[in-house]
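Protein: MALD2 protein
Species: Casuarius casuarius
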Amino acid sequence: GEAGGSLERRACSARAYSEAAAAYALRYGYMKSWAGLLRILCVVELLLGAAVFACVSAYVHKDNEWYNMFGYSQPYGLGAGSAYGGYSYSGPKTPFVLVAAGAAWVVTVGLLVLGMSMYYRTILLDSHWWPLTEFGINVALFFLYMAAAIVYVNDINRGGLCYYALFKTPINASFCRVEGGQTAAMIFLFVAVLVYLISAVVCLKLWRHEGARRHRELLEQEVGHKLLLTSNTVDRPREEITYRQLKSVEVKPEQLNGHIPAGHIPKPIVMPDYLAKYPAIQTNEMRDRYKAVFNDQFAEYKELSGEVHAVLKKFDELDALMRKLPYSPGSIHEQERISRVLQEYKKKKNDPAFLEKKERCEYLKNKLSHIKQRIQDYDKVMNWNVQ
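Structure follows.
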């Protein structure tokens, strides 16, 4: 009875961990993808758009002052080409900047809300056309913000009139004075231009990534279908494990569809034993066992690592000494001495005992890193589940 209860508790613990891991991957895995990066960029774009709108709106009173003094015509009613050396300015253009920033903000909100929906993840990401459509939208917003930035910079210097000495009278000085908020608006405008350009590039990356994913899934389906047709003599559990392992490996098309040349012997892929011996942790008992193995073998790794690094340091010193030896010694006795040094050096470098220690040290390093990663993954999921 106690054994049955223990097995049941372990099964429930494993099931709770698997559910927590699935929820963790569903929540955080998406934000680590190209589509998640696009959503983060959307948030940055919204913040920049709000800053642009606030900074530009803070100085709208300058537009009223301009129209109160000059009206809706050229300053003093003169032509642009006669009095001011070819400079042309017909009045403030801040309404265009506000409309452009507001339109881009509304579109970006739509992209953010759509990108966080399940329809986007399950339907649009599987389509061939949506990443390119999102790329086109970001490019259009890039050009819109670029136009708004150019218009605003031109508006700050009043179409170039502020560069003309005859225009910069004491009365007009306030129109040419650039306030701190206007400088901030220009900075935010050009940063938004850059962020929309980055979003367009990320959309292209998303398009290529999703296309490769669809192609890979199609190949896996074809291979899985062939395995089901040709594996009638294999028992069912082994067939499922083989297919699951095959799905985890990214297979290139040329490796599947090509042929092995005559005389070519494929090189076997040797998988480390700890990959199968230490799978993902699902219970606290497994975590404690992994931690015990880590603590037990870390001492051996630390000792081996110290010995190997000491020998390698001596080899480095010998390398430096060998580089200082003369290439053309004068006497026969000197040649024999250098030859003995070279032979001794090669012998030490190819010493089987040292090579075995070095290989064991590298194996332990990779094994301990694998176990440590398993423990960290389990702790991360369980801590998130508690929170």
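Remarks: The CA atoms of residues 29 and 36 lie 8 Å apart.
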